[in-house]
Specification:
The complex is a heterodimer of chains A (710) and B (179). Chain A is an alpha/beta fold and 710 residues long. Chain A folds into five domains: 117 residues, HPT domain (Four Helix Bundle (Hemerythrin (Met), subunit A), Up-down Bundle); 84 residues; 185 residues, Histidine kinase-like ATPase, C-terminal domain (Heat Shock Protein 90, 2-Layer Sandwich), CATH 3.30.565; 136 residues, no CATH class; 119 residues, Rossmann fold (3-Layer(aba) Sandwich), CATH 3.40.50. In chain A, 49% of the residues lie in helices and 19% in strands. In chain A, strands 1, 3, 8, 9, 15, 16 and 17 form a seven-stranded mixed beta sheet that branches. The longest helix of chain A has 45 residues. Chain B is 21% helix and 38% strand. In chain B, β10 and β11 form a beta hairpin. Chain B is globular, with a radius of gyration of 19 Å. Chains A and B meet through β16, β17 and α18 of A and β4, β5 and α3 of B. Chain A: InterPro entries: Bact_Chemotaxis_CheA, CheW-like_dom_sf, CheW-lke_dom, CheY-like_superfamily, HATPase_C_sf, HATPase_dom, His_kinase_dom, HPT_dom_sf. Chain A: GO terms for molecular function: protein histidine kinase activity.
Chain lengths: 710, 179
């Protein structure tokens, strides 16, 4: 610390410079005493800190900055243009000086590290006057000195908050361990009880002793069960907390989209100033967390796109008024997640692309045949996007726009994304850059369905509704759920996750998660909600094509992949399945209950039935069979005869005696082949009798299909 | 045995033991091949260890709904997410039971093949392997046979299995030089 007196100043100064840079731009758009006061405070703090560490250059400029602002303390009007320019100039100089304080760490990528003094934070103007010059160096320079320096500045600040959150999560996980610690004492106590019980059993033979011992054993068992439950709960909670910790730690690798906005705002402001236009900058979607590399590249491309929107799109004040538009133009940059991609959209309300000029240029360059059929808008836009137009030295206006698109297209090519353009003559243009996401952080709702665990992005979840069993059954049959006065298409998640295969046993949907995207909504039926979690979503690996419901994968605490669902995909899948009645798939038929005390037979029968598409429940005894039969609706009982306790005949007779269960057909499967047994089977009400010795898969299935059509 | 003999014998054993770790496992001379005797879909096969990156058992595989019935799902391997294909399904005779063994194929992109049982690891003389010259057409993933105790087993060629998966998924960057 002693060796580097600037260590803390650098951090503080960087943070203040970021706040000043963003504040000055806000001042341009929304002047007000609060903002002026805030800026004065930042500048004053910076001046004081700079003096302490003898950075006179910075202190002087911070002072000058204050001097410009002081007269506007009470004001609500826009600052005169020359004063705004002066503030921005001082801002840039301070930024450059602060950057120059960095140890050589930024390396050659950051020219400010080696060259103190003011630098133009925006890329060189590709204002169309000399497009050939602008095309080449613009990209590399812009890439080298993106003024937002997303890795150093705003990201660093964002990271501080994230680290705090991470630490909170670590602390939370830590406190969750407390019950485990006290559990140790409880375990000691129980061990002592068990030893005492053992002693009792050794010495006592009398009835009194036996009773006492039995009571002690019962107590011990109860205590052990309670402790077991507590440990299970605790472990579950600790796991959830650790999951959160891991998610937050992974999030540190990502940067919020807002970190590119200041640079874009500044580029818009500078371009507008140079062109003597008034342009308002707006941004949306800054909360989205993205891979810094993707964000950096997109930010650089957008710098050109927004500049071009101002220079070539937005008209002068007089022209705008004449066209019946407000004098102030508007540039809106929006960042939005779309399933497995992120969309960066820049929309302006200017004059739109000059497609006639594009056509003339294309014809002049032999890309289109003059006098041929008039090309449609899409053809012209494709030509523009393909480049070739931009290099034209003659139609400068079009050329300038083309360069911005070239940069966007380069980025898209590099990352496997796409650029698209929409233009409305006289009303504005929208350039959209859609990039595939490699890593993305989101908050997810963890859901369970038929034993599978998946995550739904929380931003797509509108609400969750508890389903009564009848509601769930109705929703499953009709494919619709009444919610909020509307019939929302219903998709049991298990059906989407186990598409084409047998859905394993499960309680069935007990909760409907209402998921919305692009103005559509579906109710996704899940067995249970298992909390929320911060997670980092990765793309599916190559060689793993998946249904559209899967948006990506995250990695759980044990290092195993967990599916992250895609809202658009869920909606599309529901539409594909028709949202109508239950499909005829055997997987959706009522399950079959197999009762047999032999493990081998149970497994054999299950395998036969499951491969035929049935869902199967197993019971190892007649008692268990009855219990299951009463707890769930089955399509068929398949039971052995010889079992300890309740035998197969009794099982069939008892179920026939119960009016609710009597409707479920029962098949007896036994090694007994005598006529008497067959008769007895028929007498108790069995629908069929299959002899194990002649066990024939097809015969069994034929019986079953007759009784319980799949 | 005298104490010195015991000490010498111990030292020799230790050396052997240490050497067995120091030597690269996959290195084999031309006359021998390291094979795994496996069962996939109830049938016996062999595969060449030299074509594998690793063998794992009982690793959780997250099922993935999608268009490929042979794709069992994805599994995590030290932070990487790897698709797992059912070898028996690739060979055309899948079983309902989920296979519990995974073999990671060499090459990119990452790929694991799942099989049901591992019968053992054998080192066999090259003369016991019946080579088949050249690739057979289509999605044939078997190449050659080996005579082992208990019968002759077809050899699953992992690069061919990879090629089959690439073909199934329309993955085009496959480079035949990997074979």
């Amino acid at each position: 610390m002693g060796r580097d007196p600037l260590r803390y100043f650098r951090i503080e100064a960087r943070e203040l410079v970021d706040q000043i840079s963003a504040g000055v731009l806000d001042l341009d758009q929304q002047p007000g005493p609060d903002l002026v006061a805030r800026l004065l405070r930042f500048a004053h703090t910076l001046k004081g800190a700079a003096r302490v560490v003898r950075q006179q250059e910075i202190a002087d400029r911070a002072h000058a900055f204050e001097e410009v602002l002081v007269p506007h303390r009470q004001g609500t009007s826009v600052l005169p243009a020359d004063e705004m320019r002066e503030l921005l100039r001082l801002n840039d100089e301070i930024e450059a000086h602060v950057a120059a304080l960095e140890p050589s760490s930024p390396g050659p990528a950051d020219p400010r590290g080696t060259e103190p003094g003011p630098v133009d934070p925006a890329p060189p103007a590709d204002d169309g006057a000399d497009p050939a010059r602008a095309a080449e160096p613009v990209m590399s320079e812009a890439a080298a000195k993106s003024p937002a320096h997303p890795e150093a500045g705003p990201a660093a600040r964002g990271a501080t908050a994230d680290v705090d959150e991470l630490l909170d999560a670590v602390g939370e996980a830590h406190t969750r361990f407390a019950p485990l610690r006290t559990g140790g004492h409880a375990l000691d106590r129980l061990t002592r009880s068990a030893e005492a019980l053992a002693d009792q059993l050794r010495v006592g033979r009398a009835a009194a002793h036996t009773d006492a011992a039995r009571a002690a054993a019962a107590r011990l068992a109860a205590d052990l069960a309670a402790l077991g439950r507590r440990i299970t709960d605790t472990v579950e909670q600790v796991e959830r907390e650790l999951d959160e910790v891991r998610g937050r730690a992974e999030r540190l690798r990502l940067v919020s989209a807002a970190s590119i906005f200041t640079a874009l705002h500044r580029a818009v402001r500078d371009a507008a100033d140079a062109q003597d236009k008034r342009v308002r900058f707006e941004s949306r979607g800054g909360d989205l967390r993205l891979d810094p590399q993707v964000l950096n590249l997109a930010g650089n491309a957008l710098l050109h796109v927004v500049r071009n929107a101002v220079v070539h799109g937005i008209e002068t004040g007089e022209d705008r008024l004449a066209a019946g538009k407000p004098a102030e133009g508007s540039v809106l940059v929006e960042v939005e997640r779309r399933g497995r991609s992120v969309a960066f959209r820049c929309a302006d309300d200017g004059r739109g692309f000059d497609l006639a000029a594009v056509r003339r240029t294309a014809e002049a360059r032999g890309l289109l045949t003059p006098g041929g059929t008039p090309p449609d808008e899409q053809t012209l836009l494709r030509l523009l996007l393909r480049g070739g137009i931009s290099t034209s030295p003659t139609v400068t206006d079009v050329a300038g726009r083309g360069i911005g698109l070239d940069v966007a297209r380069d980025v898209a090519d590099q990352l496997g994304g796409e650029v698209s353009v929409r233009t409305d003559a006289g009303l504005g243009a929208t350039v959209e850059l859609v990039l595939p996401l490699t890593l993305m952080s989101l908050h997810g709702l963890i859901v369970e369905a038929a034993g599978a665990v998946a995550t739904v992005p929380l931003d797509a979840v509108r609400t969750c509704v508890r389903l009564l069993p009848e509601q769930a059954a109705t929703a499953a049959v009709t494919g619709k759920l009444a919610h909020d006065g509307q019939a929302v298409p219903f998709l049991p998640l298990a059906r989407a996750l186990y598409a084409g295969t047998t859905v394993p046993d499960g309680a069935g949907p007990a909760v409907a998660v209402i998921v919305a995207a692009d103005g559509a909504a579906v109710a996704v039926g899940v067995d249970r909600l298992a909390g929320t979690s911060t997670l980092v979503v990765r793309p599916l690996p190559e060689l793993a094509p998946a249904a559209a419901v899967v948006g990506g994968v995250s990695i759980d605490l044990d290092g195993n992949p967990r599916l992250v669902l895609d809202a658009q995909g869920l909606i599309a899948e529901t539409a594909r399945l028709g949202g109508g009645a239950e499909p005829a798939a055997p997987a959706r038929a009522l399950p079959i209950l197999v009762v047999d005390d032999s493990l081998t037979t149970r497994m054999l029968e299950r395998s036969i039935l499951e491969s035929a598409g049935y869902e199967v429940d197993l019971a190892a005894s007649g008692e268990e069979g009855l219990e299951l039969a009463r707890s769930r609706r089955y399509g068929l009982y398949l039971t052995d005869i010889d079992m300890p306790g309740i035998d197969g005949f009794t099982f069939v007779a008892e179920t026939r005696a119960d009016p609710e269960l009597a409707v479920v057909p029962a098949i007896l499967v036994s090694s007994r082949a005598s006529a008497e047994d067959r008769q007895r089977g028929a007498a108790v009400g069995a629908s069929a009798y299959v002899v194990k010795g002649e066990f024939n898969q097809e015969e069994l299935l034929a019986h079953i299909r007759k009784l319980a059509p799949a | 045995m005298s104490p010195t003999e015991v000490t010498d014998r111990l030292a020799a054993l230790r050396d052997d033991f240490d050497r067995s770790f120091a030597e690269p496992a996959r290195q084999h001379d031309a006359e021998h091949a390291e094979l795994l005797a496996i069962r996939a879909g109830g049938r016996p096969y062999a595969l060449r260890l030299a074509q594998a990156r690793g063998v794992h058992s009982d690793r959780p595989v997250t099922p993935l709904p999608g268009p490929q019935p042979a794709l069992l799902g994805v599994a995590g391997f030290t932070g990487a997410i790897v698709p797992v294909y059912d070898l028996a399904a690739l060979l055309g005779h899948p079983l309902p039971e989920r296979p519990r063994w995974l073999v990671l194929a060499l090459g990119v992109p990452p790929l694991a093949l799942a099989f049901h049982e591992l019968d053992g690891h054998v080192r066999v003389a090259a003369s016991l392997i019946v080579e088949e010259a050249g690739a057979r057409a289509g999605r044939d993933v078997l190449r050659g046979m080996v005579a082992l105790p208990g019968g002759t087993r077809p050899i699953v060629d992992l690069p061919s299995a990879r090629a089959a998966v690439h073909q199934l998924t329309g993955h085009t960057t496959y480079n035949t030089e990997e074979r």
